[in-house]
Write a structure and sequence with these properties.
This protein folds into three domains: 203 residues, Multidrug efflux transporter AcrB transmembrane domain (Multidrug efflux transporter AcrB transmembrane fold); 74 residues, Alpha-Beta Plaits, CATH 3.30.70; 73 residues, Glucose permease domain IIB (Gyrase A, domain 2, 2-Layer Sandwich), CATH 3.30.1360.60. Helices cover 59% and strands 14% of the residues. By secondary structure, the chain is α+β, with helices and mostly antiparallel strands.
Length: 382
Amino acid sequence: MMELLPKTLYIDFVAKRHFFAALSALSMAASLALFFIVGPNWSIDFTGGTEVEVHFEESTDIGDVRRAMASMGVGEDAVQAVSGEASTYLVRVQGASGANEAEVARVKSALAAAFGPDWINEFRVDAEVGTRAAVLYNGPAVQGAAIEASLAGLPEVRVQASPEENTFYVRLPGVAEQIRDALTEQMAAKKPVIDRADSVGPKVGGNLREAGLVSLLITMGLLLVYVAIRFDFTFAPGAILCLFHDAILTVGVWVLFRQEFGLPMISAILTLVGYSLNDTIVVYDRIRENLEKYRKADLGKLINDSINQTLSRTIITSGATALALLPFLFLGGQVLNQFAKAMLIGMVFGSYSTIYIASPLMLLLKENQDRLLGLLGVKSAA
């Protein structure tokens, strides 16, 4: 293995375990307090809403965009500049993503004028789809061309076929279209161009948030089983505590600096869990090898030796991973930028926890193995 550090360098990590254990406990408590008291800055992935990315062909200041959006009742913090892109901004409107009542009324009036006031049986706007309404009508089937002709006076309304009898869909202008219209009306000279528009219904957002948290817990549980099978009882708790430690502290930093908490963050945490576990297992493997070679050696010194022997590998691996993430951080756009930041923060905590949490906890469990097994009603193999 390539040695980055001189072989004469020897750090007594185990001696400082009590201080760092207290520091980690306080940090985790603070992170949890931030999460439950302050709360994350949830993205529209989890709350529902609309996100529009717009660029201006003429140089435009963010203040001008915020003033234009104020006419829609959109707050200043909902307009953000896109990093690395000149005159490009994100407009996020949380909550409602569908069409407003005025648009619905216009469509109903046009259909009633063309086919009669009793023609519509049911007009159902699906909040989860965002701007689509399902229309069930009475009487014989009507050709789609006739329906489109009745709505020709509403240029932003689109008719879509439905597999159900006497039913069709109407695509209505929603929040994204309202944002576009406001920018076009008030900033026409700056030549706004909508690059992307995404909408998520509130129920879908809630389901995504729940699924993301459940996936994290399931991953932790499966990894606990894996480590317990690969090593033994005294190794597994330290590895799993590391994973919780790294995830909780990364989330705490995210909440502290009010970074947006969305699907990229969940992806980063799941990736970080795998990265952190790999780092911990490398050290555990060396400890196990040394335990087999030096059965009578002092366990604390043996753990110190193992950490020092793998320290160069940890630094090299972390450095190489960080270099691979830098293009995502600076050139990857909004989504990959969030992912890269979370990974870089988590990698620091991951390397720290392997040294100051996983290994010292293994020492504590080894020293008290007989007592703990006795409490569980299991006799020691010794």
